[in-house]
């Protein structure tokens, strides 16, 4: 990497929707065009729907609104695992270290033996990682570690700086090892960019779910990672998170709708940015407007939005929040408010490695029999009930 040589790669300033996870780990700012203003956008007067845009295919990051920086959906059909917790498959012909092609329905990403994202730094924002299927092994420069999955969520405040690795251990030696997850980057305001790093786990059984029935008894289930709905609230976010401010109205919800289910998405606070990502299903309608799967819908924050699902079960991800409204200057895994802060982040990482790296490799995985656990920086160990 550029920083390992002591020479900083040139930064590049741009909109946050240009930022990709691959670029973050390669220390290259992304150059892709944003989807805002593309030909698929349709402004609809007197409707809660402000715009509809196509979603790029996995694992290309999705466009996001302020206060979010990044959202990516990883969905990989990994094969049988081997003794090293990697794929029991021939890796010849893959671009190991940069394998994003999706050959045979799965990717090694930056991993060489185990798929995933080896040690890399962050500063100035938070990661919220929702592992829907499979497992993720986390290790970081604070000394924290975890294995989580099956609906668990990790919320990590990078703040002043942290290194972490995110590897996907393939434990099943007799069957498939699918992995599906969302990683969402939530910006920090300037006053909190240098907050102490904070590691937290939300186990699947602790995450509130709210089931609502329409007049025909058809169900919509909302999983509340952040925010609240009808009196049900997610666990408190990290103390320096933008989401910790009630006025920020941050919500991260997974919405499952049965076939032909109907639901009124309640209004948020005026001024909130609210985007719905329709990532699984067939068709649905919002305020009477037909929308196909693989689209993101920008909604008015202060309006109720009626959702009428089609004949197939559907899933949507909601990202919502009041915008931070501050400059965003990014350089790969650093997101700050000024160019000077980017240069400082580079110097600080070169000097301190954000606490160093005590793990035996850049691609650490935990023992096969470790189970789901979280070991915090103070040494306490937490496991799901």
Mind telling me the C-alpha Rg?
Answer: 20 Å
**Secondary structure: helix percent:** under 10%
In order across it, which strands form the biggest sheet?
1-20-17-22-15-12-11
What would the average pLDDT be, to the nearest integer? Answer: 90
Shape field: globular
Number of strands: 26
Strand content: 35-45%
Distance between the termini: 41 Å
Q: Largest sheet, described in full? A: 7 strands, antiparallel
User: Structural class of the secondary structure composition?
Assistant: mainly beta
Please give the count of helices: 2
* Spans of at least 5 consecutive residues with low confidence: 1-20, 22-44
What is the ordering of alpha helices and beta strands?
HEEEEEEEEEEEEEEEEEEEEEEEEHEE
